[in-house]
What we know:
Blueprint: E1 6-11, H1 20-25, E2 29-35, H2 39-49, E3 53-55, H3 58-62, E4 69-72, H4 79-88, E5 92-95, H5 103-116, E6 120-122, H6 130-140, E7 147-155, H7 175-183, E8 189-197, H8 202-208, E9 214-221, E10 227-233, E11 242-249, E12 252-255, E13 264-268, E14 271-275, H9 305-310, H10 317-329, H11 338-356, E15 362-363
Parallel strand pairs: 1-2, 1-4, 2-3, 4-5, 5-6, 7-10
Antiparallel strand pairs: 7-11, 8-9, 8-15, 9-10, 11-12, 12-13, 13-14
Helix pairs in contact: 4-5, 5-11, 7-11
Amino acid sequence: MTQQKIKxxxxxxxxxxxxxxIYQKHPNAIMYAICQRNEDKLNEIGDAFxxxxxxxxxxxxxxxxxxxxxxxxxxxxxxxxxxxxxxxAGKHVACTVPMATTVEECRQxxxxxxxxxxxxxxxxxxxxxxxxxxxxxxxxxGELGKLQFIRASHQQEMAGWxxxxxxxxxxxxxxxxxxPVLALPKAQAEYVSCFGSGRIDENLxxxxxxxxxxxxxxxKLKDSDLSAEVTRSLxxxxxxxxxxxxxxxxxxxFEWTLVEHEDNVIHTGETPEKVKTPDYAHLxxxxxxxxxxxxxxxxxxxxxxxxxxxxxxxxxxxxLVHEFLTALVENREPYPNAQQSAxxxxxxxxxxxxxxxxxxxxxxxxxxxx
Length: 370
């Protein structure tokens, strides 16, 4: 690999702290700066990881000419504004999901990437999880045969999360289930139709005007005979945390386990077999391979909610960092790039709009024209 070093700044140090040691050890990164509004938290993290450059003001960070790339891990309502500001300040951007909260914000980010020539990548964990990499390898080897159908679900109880999550429309945070159904066939969504079902507590409904306990969406893939289905719930639905996908092929099919930590199932014809999903650390530089199995939030007294529920995100974090950095040093597009991230994100935004309109078919914007 090239020895080029990218100077990275991380913004938001809750979930964001997980990525600090990965950048510190990656051969193409310099973990240059951190940014957090709470100065006590900023100094706590800075001291723990030995990072000297610290900012409480995001605007001041963007003025730092030493920074090549910004990794954004702030609350979702800040993603679009902060991504746009970073791109316009001449910085590459990696941003946790979702890309934005409106179709227009997604369009603005795509346009900003084209205007600035900078790179944008949405850091979608599921499409770099060991489960996805396992199925992707099977597909690329021809073991699945022709893809016939893909479905995914993300069911989660958000009680106890920060207040802005309360009453959030389920599909407004759908990238974890939309991502894999589009990433495996490397497809774009063409249009969606979604139904809402059930009803959440009345005190939650008023916050976003969204009544549904569950939203389920069908996605038509562009220039393909494939369609996909995704299901999402956030409140008042009894279910163990589930962040899953199933892939049906003409030769073999993959089904996610119904109970977390149990084995997944591969069907060959009509014959099922439980399988152990291998780790894919071998795809990474040796310096960061250990992070597929352990990271900052491992000890019992140091647990982030996304880890308690998300089972470590399938070992995806070092793969995400590696994809972002290698895309920069190789001067290529990452996956997902800005247009792909916009398509993934807008599936969820427009799916909720469809559900509020009784399942009306809604086309996805063509971001290639943005």
